[in-house]
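Quiz preparation item.
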């Protein structure tokens, strides 16, 4: 069930909201997705270069009762389909449904996966053969970069613009 490659591969950990899609707040339906410019071609480029591609996303809207895990999984399957149609795809989506105080159900608790905690990245590195030294995270908040730092991978702040251009600058035109 767990994919294993013969040798470790680098991983690109991508925050979702504000990196792949515009962050309108608690996006949870396909019709709400507005892709960031260059997002699909950036994922294709990472795929072509042999990166594992993981989404690591805080989804406290679940703790707040705004949507459920089934909605979120459906959205992520749809996003993966769109990205695969463009030549890329996501190897695994990791999400944190928790919040330390908001909401009043089972998701309202301290956890080790809500960024800035590194739990989602560490889980991916347990489940896949990852070369951390060649891996990086792209996020749009300090909490994303803090999670990367604690997990031992480089973090890069994406301040908007074209994600393909951003990724190309990171990995270079010819790097393997
Ligand atoms: Mg974000
Ligand atoms: Zn969590």
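Solution:
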């Amino acid at each position: 069930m767990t994919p294993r490659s013969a040798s470790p591969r680098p991983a690109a950990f991508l925050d979702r909201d504000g990196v792949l899609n515009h962050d309108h707040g608690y996006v949870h339906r396909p019709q709400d997705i507005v892709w960031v410019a260059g997002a699909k071609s950036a994922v294709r480029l990472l795929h072509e270069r042999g990166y594992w591609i993981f989404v690591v996303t805080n989804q406290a809207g679940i703790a707040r009762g705004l949507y459920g895990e089934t909605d979120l999984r459906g959205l992520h399957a749809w996003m993966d389909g769109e990205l695969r149609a463009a030549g890329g795809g996501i190897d695994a989506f990791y999400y944190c449904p928790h919040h330390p105080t908001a909401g009043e159900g089972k998701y309202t608790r301290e956890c080790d996966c809500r960024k800035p905690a590194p739990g989602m990245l560490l889980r991916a590195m347990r489940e896949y053969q990852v070369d951390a030294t060649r891996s990086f995270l792209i996020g749009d908040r300090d909490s994303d970069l803090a999670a990367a730092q604690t997990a031992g991978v480089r973090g890069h702040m994406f301040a908007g613009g074209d994600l393909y251009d951003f990724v190309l600058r990171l990995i270079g035109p010819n790097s393997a």
